[in-house]
Amino acid sequence: MKxxxxxxxxxxxxxxxxxxxxxxxxxxxxFPDAEYDMxxxxxxxEGTVQALVDATGGTLRQATVxxxxxxxxxxTYGLLGAGVNNAGQAEQGGRDDGSVPTAADKAEAGLTAVIxxxxxxxxGFVDEATENPLAATTYGxxxxxxxxxxxxxxxxxxxxxxxxxxDGGAGxxxxxxxxxxxxxxxxxxxxxxxxxxxxxxxTAGLDPRLKTTEIxxxxxxxxxxxxxxxxxxxxxxxxxxxxxxxxQLDKALVHYAxxxxxxxxxxxxxxxxxxxxxxxxxxxxxxxxxxxxxxxEIVAQTVHLASRAAHADYCIxxxxxxxxxxxxxKTPMGVAQTVRQGNPHIGVIALAGYVGxxxxxxxxxxxxxxxxxxxxxxxxxxxxxxxxxxxxxxxxNVARLIALSQR
Length: 407
Ligand SMILES: O=C(O)[C@H](O)CO
Fold this sequence. Notes:
- Belongs to the glycerate kinase type-1 family.
- Helix content is 35%, strand content 19%.
- The chain is of the alpha/beta class and 407 residues long.
- It has 2 domains: 2-40 and 303-405, Rossmann fold, CATH 3.40.50.10350; 48-295, Glycerate kinase, domain 2 (Alpha-Beta Complex).
- A 6-stranded mixed β-sheet has the order 3-4-5-6-9-10, sandwiched between helices. Strands 2-1-11-12-13 form a 5-stranded parallel β-sheet, with helices on both faces. A two-stranded antiparallel sheet has the order 7-8.
- The longest helix is centred in the middle third of the chain and has 22 residues, at 243-264.
- It is elongated.
- It starts with a strand and ends with a helix.
- Bound molecules: (2R)-2,3-dihydroxypropanoic acid (DGY).
């Protein structure tokens, strides 16, 4: 019997790796001799760096960068290991065609870094008293990209979302060498508000390493940069923008996008995801060699999930919450679809801290069964404290059902 264990983190409770370990411990009560392939997962949001570092035996790195309000902070990013790693032990690497990568393949593949923009420019750095989307900058995210380039990264996975910013990624680009000038040739201030003064975008100093660096953007939303569904209108208020500020920020981004189109020949305004993270999506597309992809797809490809499922009997996935939103690119859905590509007969079971309404479509989309792990009514604090134990017990019960079905 072979199990693939591929959960996301359970927010505020367990990292993806801790969740995978809890699931394994429960399954192993019933199937001590089964083969367990541990694949900590993520969807590009919080926990992506840790999950990919854990899954590949990579390393966590830190750099001092500027937060959205330009205060120095220590931010963490990751460098992936050369091969897929099973819970930090033996290498399990396989390509999605089922073959195992050679040392030459790995050398050729180059170093991959993984960054969460929120580690430098996230909403967690501001509070009600300090939030200011007119001034907040993604400069620190650019500094993290630069740190990854200094480490030798040739490919960067960047999870974007959860930002405090609305600057169209101009701060990020500035940290990488772009100059944003007003009509007097003076550098404009950082932050989305000042983009209305922009007149010239000078990319002469852009870090040349970006030309040969592939950037994969895992975006949490697919909103356009501007307009009623754009960055400012939809996400500005949660960053402290008043209705008047929303109008000002949107106008500034319209102007910014027009200059990017005129001066760089790049039309980013309507691309789905360009409005993610206050328009950082647009900035990455305009100034770097970037493309958007679903976050869970990027992670699944990076850890070779499809090929690892080829000879597995069951896949156990999960996340803190599973509800109607899960079908739109959340980890359990992406895991189910990916493992089925590698093995149409695999059984897929999802475990969650809470199970919300609207989950019926998930059964047709590839998840065979969904179970909540809480044993009964309790407080959130208690549910979080008991999370690993509850998850292990739910996994044990799943294993008991599997054993029963084999009798
Ligand atoms: O950061 C933001 O603006 C939201 O999470 C959408 O990307």
